[in-house]
Amino acid sequence: MTEPVPHPEARLQGLCVDGPAGPLISGLDLTVESGERLGIVGPSGSGKTLTAGALLGLPLPGLRVSGDRYLSPRTGALLQESASALNPLMRVGRQYDLALRGAGVPRAERRERIDRQLKELALDADTRRAWPLHLSGGQRQRAALGLALVTEPELVVADEPTAALDALTQNEILLMLRRILDARATALILISHDLALVARLCERVVVLGGGRIVEEGPTADILAEPQHPTSARLVDAARTLGVTA
What we know:
Keywords: ATP-binding, Cell inner membrane, Cell membrane, Membrane, Nucleotide-binding, Translocase, Transport. It is built from eight helices and nine strands. By secondary structure, the chain is of the alpha/beta class.
């Protein structure tokens, strides 16, 4: 029997983002295969969040985007300040239900899917009836993550998903995310300035500097022997936090 041919979940070819003062991203190429976990890292101003926005097709006012883009139609997004993804005027369960309805999940299955997703994120079933503002910061972050995962996407794009959390809560959420991705074989694009965080989830890394890819390769290789000064600075920071190859 012929093995199924893997298909990419995301692809950028020749991505350029130009602003009034000149180019912000220049000719960026990347591909994420089915089940792969790619980290996009770089210092502030390197183009990470612009890359995420362009990939997801988000509005980038005042900027001109060019290049080819493909994104799996089954993609979940978890962006910076992700707790704001929850509508404060709508109960959590209702928001999950709308996401599942939009994905074509039959009404008879939606309640069970919601409760299962909440349980995976260590949230009580009563969270379904909760208003976002009645949850703690960590609970809101997990509920926002659940909103990205409840439709069981093939790819999750996460841009600095735990930046606003304390170290303990960040660790808990990363462990939950890794467990769910493992169980579902879900692809991931994780965007962060923190190589230590990316190293915990991603087997491959792209390093951005000045809107360009300055280095890419297996995470372990870049941690062991970074070839570009930008990568070396990120590795030094990661080692300060106890992450080594």
